[in-house]
Amino acid sequence: MQQQHAPVHRDRYVPARTNEGWGAAAATVLLAVILIIGATVIHNRTYKHPTDPGWRATGSQPASSVPRGH
User: Fold this and answer.
1) Residues with Cβ < 8 Å from 55, sequence gap 6 or more?
2) Predicted TM-score (pTM) of this structure
3) What is the mean pLDDT of residues 44-50?
4) Which of 25, 55, 59, 63 has its CB 3.0 to 4.6 Å from that of 48, i.e. a possible disulfide?
5) DSSP the chain
């Protein structure tokens, strides 16, 4: 007859690595800040309010050919 052996207990605890991922988080935040700054700079350089006298729609007359006094 074969002998039955009891299984040997092996500790399977794996400690959590909770300090990983900070580099990816920092890169994501840095990218977001760079994109926000870039969008703000582009907006400030190119945006004209529709009531701005220098603003013209595509296909409209150039500002130099619009008659004054109307």
Assistant:
1) 48, 49
2) 0.54
3) 88
4) 55
5) -PPPPPPPP--------TTTTHHHHHHHHHHHHHHHHHHHHHHHHH---TT-TT---TTSPPGGGSPS--
